[in-house]
Design a protein that fits this description.
mainly alpha
């Protein structure tokens, strides 16, 4: 089986399952697939949260839709 992006021969079973080699997978999705072992688990506390100037909350957005 070949990579759907670059056409190179896929060697690992995980790459064949995904249809992408690890380099093309990272280019397409922004991170490399987990090839060996358990997938990395992340808790919501580990995900960074950034406040950006002008950012709306979901409540603010819903008020713009209802006009209230």
């Amino acid at each position: 089986m070949q990579c759907v992006v670059c056409g190179r021969l896929l060697k690992s079973s995980k790459s064949r399952e995904l249809g992408y080699g690890p380099v093309c997978y990272k280019k397409m999705f922004g991170y490399a697939p987990q090839i060996r072992g358990k997938p990395a688990e992340s808790s919501p506390d580990e995900i960074p949260h950034y406040d950006m100037p002008g950012q709306m909350t979901i409540e603010d957005y819903m008020q713009t839709l209802t006009g209230a």
